Amino acid sequence: MRPGRWFLVAALMASVTVPAVAAEPLIADLTSHFIAITTGFTGTDVVLFGATDGTGDVIAIVRGPEHDAVVRRKSRVAGIWVNTQQMTFTGVPTYYAVYSSRPLDEIAPPQMQALHQIGLANLRLGAAEKNRSPEEINDFRAALIRERQRQGVFGDGVGRITFLGDRLFRATIPFPANLPTGEYRVEIFLVRDKAVISGQTTPLYASQAGIDADVYEFANREALLYGIIAVAGAAMAGWLASLPFRNA
Amino acid sequence: MDLYLPIAAMSLDVFLLLALGAAVGFLSGVFGVGGGFLLTPFLIFIGVPHAVAVASSANQLVGASVSGALAHWRRGNIDFQMAFVLLAGGLVGSAAGVWLFAVLRRIGQIDLAISLSYALLLGTLGALMLAESTRAILRLRKPGGPRRKLHQHIWLHGLPLKMRFRRSKLYISALLPLSLGFAVGVLSAIMGVGGGFVMIPAMIYILGMPTSVVPGTSLFQIIFVAATVTVLQAVSNGTVDVVLALVLLVGGVIGAQLGTRFGQRLRGEQLRAMLAFIVLAVAAKLLFDLTVTPPDLYSLETLGP
């Protein structure tokens, strides 16, 4: 287990104001911590499972690796549509989904949802330009979320966590074929009487595997050599192709 | 069967790509042009990101033009001297083009620039070809016109730095092929094309080269321009998808051979008129896509990991 994970768990526990409870109130894990994106990858399911120490509800948030993102707005210039405005958002998760054992508003007060960024409306996205009006920032923000939803990497609603009996829970998290690569974080909260009792964070890695991963890696690290090999490969293929027709 | 393209970061049906390669290869076999100018728009139509479509087409083009140039070389139809002068301009042009490409990409206008330059160029070219082939078909109906001169001399040929091109039987200013090469180099970088469809008419009508050496010479210099563009795109934009290029190449080679056979049974003027219609249709579709109100005015780009 990586030290980073312990740090996150510790940080989460510290942020939760709860008297110490005997035994762990929440234990959760994933069936797999690694998603290999291979040539024929068409998406996969990861199961989140765990147990609580009694009653309560469970909320889980899955967040993908964070990158900056540029949202551009088109307008009509001389009859054609041209990108005329843009806004950069920093640290935007490339994947986001919420899972809950009951409707969020029944178990989590708005302050809690805002604090833990539960739900797309509470996602904190930093607009890099500060001199824009709040309405403008909201429009661009909404467009960003809309586009990510269209790509299937931002969940539309709240996924289901089902309890088996009182204490065991599970949820199936489907990941699409186009899931972004990198380090994911699954945050699991135990909620009782509208307060977070316990929390846990567990990592998940998505990475290209097999020949594609090697090609991608290589193209980024050794761009010049990659370019030269691409040319040589194509030239070779062209030459081979002309051989059978030499006497034509 | 879906194939994951590592640089485009998307899955596409391998048979669709093979068919696309074959269709473009077939057209290039029939009409004797590279076909890159049709390949890039078709890749964009099926959803490949503009930048990847352009860079991978350039890569595919290296293979296609090696294959084509070898066939012409065996028949001695390459003016190497002319090719190297064109190439000198072409290399500078492609470097300038790749730089321009990176700038346009940074300011978010690369998609527009690619679509717009395709629409304009294909529109102009299609119209010219249609007019020319219609005239040729009409001329055939009433035979017996005056015999044409080997080539016309225009004032451009008289610019300084005159050079003798033996294979092409020309004595013209080297500035002319140099700037033609430069222009085509820029086009290659921005549009992912070898520029054969600009180069060939320019060689015939502006440089006045004999028709027999034009395709071979054009293909030969395209190998090097496309190779330069591929390497520069890989380094400065990271948009060359070798898997995509190779699949297209396989389809293209098969298509080109079938196309060549088929093309020999058709009349030149009719062929050119047909090609003109295809080119105009592609231009119209690109222009239409630019003017139609997009479903979402906003678009999103994730800045590289």
Brief summary of the model shown:
The complex is a heterodimer of chains A (248) and B (305). With 248 residues, chain A is an alpha+beta fold. Chain A contains 6 helices and 13 strands.
Q: In what range is the share of β-strand residues of chain B?
A: 5-15%
Q: What is the succession of H and E elements of chain B? A: EEHHHHHEEHHHHHE
List the secondary-structure elements of chain A in sequence, H or E: HEEEEEEEHHEHEEEEEHH
Largest sheet of chain A: 6 strands, mixed
Beta-strand residue fraction of chain A: 35-45%
Number of strands of chain B: 5
Oligomer: heterodimer
What would the principal axes of the Cα set say about the shape of chain B? globular
- Overall helicity of chain B: 55-70%
Mean of pLDDT of chain B: 80
Specify Rg of chain A, calculated over alpha carbons: 23 Å
Give me the number of helical elements of chain A.
6
Number of strands of chain A: 13
Helix-strand category of chain B: mainly alpha
User: What is the molecular shape of chain A?
Assistant: flat
What are the low-pLDDT stretches of chain A, counting only 5+ consecutive residues below 50? 17-21
Helical content of chain A, roughly? Answer: 25-40%
Cα-atom Rg of chain B, whole angstroms?
A: 19 Å
Greatest contact pair? A-B, 65 and 57 residues
Strands across the major sheet of chain A, in which order? 2-13-12-4-7-9
Protein described:
The complex is a heterodimer of chains A (248) and B (305). Chain A has helices spanning 3-15, 104-107, 110-115, 134-150, 211-221, 223-242; strands spanning 26-30, 34-37, 44-52, 57-63, 66-77, 80-93, 96-100, 126-127, 154-160, 162-164, 168-175, 182-192, 195-208. Chain A has 248 residues and is α+β, with helices and mostly antiparallel strands. In chain A, helix 5 packs across helix 6. Chain A starts with a helix and ends in a 6-residue tail after the last helix. Chain B is mostly helical. Chain B is 69% helix and 7% strand. Chain B contains 10 helices and 5 strands; from the N terminus they run ββαααααββαααααβ. Chain B has helices spanning 14-31, 36-45, 50-74, 80-106, 110-141, 175-191, 196-207, 214-236, 242-263, 268-291; strands at residues 2-5, 10-13, 162-165, 170-173, 298-302. In chain B, the strands form 2 sheets. A two-stranded antiparallel ribbon of chain B has the order 1-2. In chain B, strands 3-4 form a two-stranded antiparallel ribbon. The radius of gyration of chain B is 19 Å and the shape is globular. The model of chain B has no long low-confidence stretch (mean pLDDT 80). Classes of the chains: A alpha+beta (248), B mainly alpha (305).
